[in-house]
Design goal:
The structure is a single chain. The protein is an alpha/beta fold and 676 residues long. The protein has three domains: 141 residues, Chitobiase/beta-hexosaminidase domain 2-like (Chitobiase, domain 2, 2-Layer Sandwich), CATH 3.30.379; 327 residues, Glycosidases (TIM Barrel, Alpha-Beta Barrel), CATH 3.20.20.80; 173 residues, no CATH class. It has 25 helices and 18 strands. The strands form three sheets. Strands 8, 9, 10, 11, 12, 13, 14, 15 and 16 form a nine-stranded mixed beta sheet that branches. Strands 1, 2, 3, 4, 5, 6 and 7 form a seven-stranded mixed beta sheet that branches. Strand 14, helix 12 and strand 15 form a beta-alpha-beta unit. The longest helix is centred in the C-terminal third of the chain and has 23 residues. The radius of gyration is 28 Å and the shape is globular. About 1% of the residues have low confidence. The protein binds acetamide (ACM). The site of acetamide (ACM) has 4 residues, from loops.
């Protein structure tokens, strides 16, 4: 009998190994190839490292940061201070070998090999950029047991699937301070992202100092802009982490703030003031005015020198054409030059801008609206309205990147973004066409966030996008992704990210510094309404609205709610029907409303979520009744089901622009009970 059992275990093990990749290490993005060995490298206070080969200088501070992070997490007092090119150490346990200095440019070699054995660690890379990715992998592997800290022995060979793995930060709708940008650069590096797309001009704000046209930042920014010194500092900070930084100056639309300073370049007479509302607005550059190009040539020249990256984003999205239609001289120009419509007029403008950027040594990238007949193939198409432009561009020989499906401002669940593949398995593209798809970017539009809660919209979901863009296509199991991302989310706090800690701060403010226990129980289970619904529920948001309500504290893809939904699915699929994982939470939720009411009474700002709180208690009670029917196999009266389906419909409604994320699971319980 014992023998058979043993054989069975071996068989099952062999089977599961053959079904790799089993993503059972706490890594994200998961490496291309992982071989686990049956031993550990024990970390102790003698730990030292040594860098050899021919790296870029950035490797030394990066190695120092890694050492300090290991030390901070373990409390071990390592002997080495600051690692430099002259650091000497006797037979160091960790050796980092780099063949050549990396360049922070598109398509640089970012591969690395990390071999951890019981007595030594070898990190090998073509460039220091690859080696830095290896540092992050090593840090994610740090584990502990009763004997101390260790790294599991592994042989990892890793390289990215796509060369363009970005995050776009909109610093215009709400200004984002430098420390927000820097902590997010650290977080990007931690998940091997390599491009920061900095959205710097909008209807609502012009966010860069211009020495050539100082009125731009003086009149277009409310004083909230980055100086040249700050921009250079961020670019240097990013480059030290292997991250490119490129700017977006959105033209010809989304341009009101420019015209607050220079109304003469708009297509309708001024004066203009900085836009305070959200939406798509009319002010648009006049593409028929030669002075427009002189102005943009001078300004783009200044910015081309400030931002060393090869790429330069011109926006180009959502030009509504109203000012063009209403302007007689523009209509006359179109007639005289055989420009049939506004798309063609925008293409005329883009062609002029392309010449300017090319002269300044830049490659042009723009939102998918710029993908129009007549544009040369050396531009990059940034797909946001769908994947159609991405695919068509690739087929026609244009390079493209994907953001459709990575709009993290829309509050969609992590797995939605995770499974959004720039080149899905059933893609009709040829191998050559696939090479034109460079990768993608998560986009953090900032209408509905401030520097206070923006991290909670970016992280941890962006780590799943980072994995989609780095890891092999077949690394796509949602359950293991959720297990791993929870740990990565926690590790990101090491860089000062606020996605976890500001949650409780915001709840404390909502209660005027009273006990948040019961409020947290509720808010853990709700999410903001999705897509752009928040703008359509009778609340008029502007740049000066408060973003401090429950809906702003509530997080996307609420963990506690998702775990409950999964637990209900497990319960209903289990022939033994073990409800013991469900009952304690449900009992707590039943009681929560009366306790939370004490807080709500003293916090008028919470009044709007009172119905959510009440509904939580009601559906928790209902879930308990349903489980009772199911467990005891008791016949369920028809009226019970009908009456409670009404309650379920009520509980699905949002209040305070947030929704309870348990209702679908309770509905399943009620319907199952109803079958009795
Ligand atoms: C965009 O979301 N308007 C690019």
């Amino acid at each position: 009998m014992k023998k058979i059992k043993f054989l069975l275990v071996v068989l099952i093990m062999a089977f599961s190994i053959s079904l790799t990749p089993a993503q059972n290490l706490p890594l994200m993005p998961y490496p291309k190839s992982v071989k686990q060995l049956n031993t550990n490298f024990r970390l102790d206070k003698e730990f030292t490292l040594f860098v050899e080969g021919n790296p870029n200088e950035r490797i030394y501070p990066a190695a120092t940061r890694m050492l300090r992070r290991l030390s901070d997490r373990t409390g071990l007092f390592f002997p080495q201070d600051v690692i430099t090119s002259t650091t000497k150490t006797e037979s160091p346990p960790m050796v980092i070998s780099v063949k050549r200095p990396g360049k922070v440019i598109l398509n640089e070699d970012e591969s690395y090999q990390l071999f951890i054995y019981d007595n030594k660690i070898q990190l090998m890379a073509e460039t220091d950029l690859g080696a830095m990715h290896g540092f992050e992998t090593l840090l994610q592997l740090l584990s502990a047991d009763e004997n101390g800290y260790y790294l599991p022995a592994v042989e990892i060979e890793d390289q990215p699937r796509f060369p363009w793995r970005g995050l776009m930060i909109d610093a215009c709708r709400h200004f984002m301070p430098i420390n927000m940008v820097k902590r997010n650069l650290d977080a990007m590096a931690a998940v091997k992202m390599n491009v920061l797309h900095w959205h710097l001009s909008e209807d609502q704000g012009f966010r860069v100092e211009s020495k050539v046209y100082p009125k731009l930042h003086q009149l277009g920014s409310d004083g909230l802009y980055y100086s040249h010194a700050q921009i250079k500092d961020v670019i240097e900070y990013a480059a030290a982490r292997g991250i490119r930084v490129y700017p977006e100056f959105d033209v010809p639309g989304h341009a009101t703030s420019w015209f607050a300073a220079y109304p003469e370049f708009a297509s309708a007479p001024g004066p203009y003031t900085i836009e305070r509302n959200w939406g798509i607005f009319d002010p648009t550059f006049d593409p028929t005015n030669e002075e427009t190009y002189t102005f943009l040539n001078n300004f783009f020249g200044e910015m081309a020198a400030l931002f060393p990256d090869e790429y330069f984003h011109i926006g180009g999205d959502e030009v509504n054409g109203k000012q063009w239609d209403a302007n007689e001289s523009i209509q006359k120009f179109m007639n005289e030059n055989n420009i049939p419509d506004n798309h063609a007029l925008q293409t005329y403008f883009n062609q002029r801008i392309l010449k300017i950027l090319t002269k300044h040594g830049k490659k042009m990238i723009g939102w998918d609206e710029i993908f129009q007949p007549g544009m040369p193939q050396n531009i990059v198409i940034h797909s946001w309205r769908g994947t159609k432009a991405l695919m068509e561009a690739a087929q026609k020989g244009y390079r493209s990147i994907l953001s459709n499906g990575y709009y993290i401002d829309l509050i969609q669940p992590t797995d939605f973004h995770y499974l959004n593949d720039p080149i899905p398995a059933d893609s009709p593209l040829s191998e050559k066409e696939k090479k034109n798809i460079l990768g993608g970017e998560a986009t953090m539009w900032s209408e509905l966030v401030t520097h206070e809660n923006v991290d909670s919209r970016i992280w941890p979901r962006t780590a799943a996008i980072a994995e989609r863009l780095w890891s092999p296509q077949n690394i796509n199991d949602v359950d293991t992704m959720y297990k791993r991302i929870e740990r990565i989310s926690f590790l990101l706090e090491e860089h000062g990210l606020l996605h976890i800690k500001n949650y409780e701060m915001m709840l404390r403010r909502l209660t005027n510094n009273n006990d948040i226990t019961y409020l947290k129980t509720l808010v853990d289970l709700i999410e903001p309404v999705k897509i752009y619904t928040r703008h359509r529920q009778g609340v008029k948001y502007t740049s000066f609205s408060p973003y401090t309500r429950v809906v702003d504290a509530a997080r996307p893809d609420a963990d506690a709610a998702r775990k409950f939904r999964n637990e209900v699915d497990r319960y209903l699929a289990d022939p033994m029907l073990n409800s013991s994982n469900l009952i304690p939470s449900l009992l707590r939720w039943v009681d929560n409303h009366s306790k939370l009411m004490e807080t709500i009474k003293l916090s008028p700002i919470l009044k709007e979520i009172e119905p959510l709180s009440h509904n939580l208690s009601k559906i928790a009670s209902l879930a308990l009744e349903a489980i009772e029917y199911i467990n005891n196999n008791r016949p369920t009266p028809q009226y019970w089901v009908e009456q409670n389906l009404d309650l379920i419909e009520e509980a699905k409604k949002p209040y305070g622009q947030a929704e309870l994320m348990l209702v679908s699971a309770v509905e399943k319980l009620v319907l199952t009970a109803g079958k009795n």
